[in-house]
Amino acid sequence: MLPTLCLVKQRASVALRHISSSRCYNSSLESQGGSVRHKFELLPILLQYPASYSLLRRSNPVFVLQNRVIVSTDLNPYWNLAFENYLLEQKRQENTNSRWLFLWRNQPSVILGRHQNPWIECNMPFMKSQNIPLVRRQSGGGTVYHDLGNTCISIFAEKHEPERNLQFACDVLRGSFQLNAYISPRKDIFVDEFKVSGSAFRITNKACYHHFTLLLSTDLDVLEQTLTPITLKMDSKATASVRSRVLNLSSKTSINHDTLSDALARRFSAQYPNEGSTGLSIDVWDHERIVSVPDVRATFQEYIDWNYIYGRTPEFTQHLQHTFPSGFSVNMSINVVEGVIRSASVETDPSDFVVDMAFQNGLAGFPYSAAVLSQTLVGQTVSIHCEESEQKFSEMRRWFVNSLYV
């Protein structure tokens, strides 16, 4: 709950005293051969007063800034990505050449690229056993694993300038943490030949965002298991991820989410100062503030929907083959468009036409979902009047449903 107006005013007063006091400190940056000194506020100070931010912004001109640093303290990947989309729409409406830095992180989750196929990108049985959610984002690029040891960075601007954004992050890693960070030809960040950051973007007619991650202390064992898919024979039109060796930055230097966020905010404030500004504005969004925005709530509902997560998968055809203990085998080819089975070919050996047709009828036109297909296939048993064929059908149904994972 938000504090009372009196408490908000008290917090605002304390924060303003922080800003005007000598406890603000200087950061020195080398720029064009000279020293540029810029006074700004410590990130942790404003994080203590998130409820009073809007009052601070109204009561002091230092908080009415063009360039912005925005921090989410929410850890839910669906809400954070919905909020990121909201920020892009706000940036489009602003329609200026300002730059916004958005810092966030997520609970364990797998984030799928806009044009990717989850069946060939991640290990869904393992994710299900660990309660790791799958999220489809608006940007392209590959599939990534997020947890609290992974810092997410989004930069909003009028123009798409990925090298400029990545160089900003590399400068922070080099200057504040003495890491040999550099940009790869694929526009990723590497340290000592190991990948530490993936990169993706979304471009609209008036604004864009470029977001990337930095591996700080991610559970690399879980990352490996979630991003190693079960081997499937599949023809897919989806964008495939490119695998790389990865490294946690904490294995090289003392770094965590808070120290990195502070260093990024300081550097951003110094590199992109606002006219007349003497301090850094941190716009802190907690869960309550994020969910209070109607547009964010609407996008969240879209993001958690099966039709968005799985139904947005580009067309694919999965090929399945299995031999059952009773001695018969089956070959299937299932064509899926927008998450719905458009056609299915089922051939048993020895051939059983009744079983083949019943199985095909239980698949075509339905979502490629175990929960749905287990019911539609059960409904087809009434068309089988042979005990042996019914036994085959039941074995096939149990095997097939268990192989879907979703």
3D architecture notes:
There is one protein chain. This protein has 15 helices and 18 strands. It is α+β, with helices and mostly antiparallel strands and 406 residues long. It folds into two domains: 305 residues, BirA Bifunctional Protein, domain 2; 89 residues, Enolase-like, domain 1, CATH 3.30.390. It has a six-stranded mixed β-sheet with strand order 12-13-8-4-3-15, with helices on both faces. Strands 14-16-17-18 form a four-stranded antiparallel β-sheet. Strands 6-5-7 form a three-stranded mixed β-sheet, with no helix packed on it. Helix 4 links the parallel strand 3 and strand 4. The radius of gyration is 26 Å and the shape is elongated. The two termini are 37 Å apart. The N terminus is likely disordered.
Coarse shape:
elongated
Beta-strand content estimate: 15-25%
**Individual helix count:** 15
What is the CATH fold-level name of the largest domain? BirA Bifunctional Protein, domain 2
The biggest sheet, with number of strands, parallel, antiparallel or mixed sense and barrel status, is: 6 strands, mixed
Termini Cα gap: 37 Å
**Can you count the beta strands?**
18
Question: Which structural class matches the secondary elements?
Answer: alpha+beta
Q: Which strand order do you get reading across the main beta sheet?
A: 12-13-8-4-3-15
Rg value: 26 Å
Secondary structure: helix percent = 25-40%
Overall pLDDT score: 83
Q: In total, how many domains does the architecture comprise? A: 2
CATH class of the largest domain: Alpha Beta
The CATH architecture designation of the largest domain is 2-Layer Sandwich
CATH superfamily of the largest domain: Bira Bifunctional Protein, Domain 2
Low-confidence stretches: 1-9, 11-65
